[in-house]
Amino acid sequence: MPNAHPLAKRKNLRLRDLANEPFIFGSRLGWETYRAFIDSVFYAAEFDPKIILEVYGSVGIFGLVAAGLGVSIYPDCQLQVQYRNFAVRPLVDVARPVETAAIWYPRTLTRPAGHFVTFLEEYRAATDGTKRAVTRFRGSSIERRMKRALK
Question: How many DSSP H helices and E strands does the chain contain?
């Protein structure tokens, strides 16, 4: 929400606190899975959000929210991102995790993709204290290629 929003003064919010707010979300086309998750959250809270804008990407959502056009709900990984005129507050009554999967084929892993895999593993380790990113390789030649791709 924008920093000037009255609810931005609070440290935590409940979903019901946003019941009368205009919402900005990613469009259903391209955000199908996340929007299904959001729909289930609102269904459980027994109210329909007043969605005024649907945009293509995250930057659009954040920009429109920062401009004061509405509020949005986004995974908590965005708590680490700082925006001007933008306040992020946790919803204490929404505890359902958003699962994300990353799948790659080690034989065709490019150097940039290898760096991205490393980032994902480090992010996972930093956020929950484990290195549980599941990686499966078959054969030592693939492992050697993976190591070369990460250099």
Answer: 4, 2
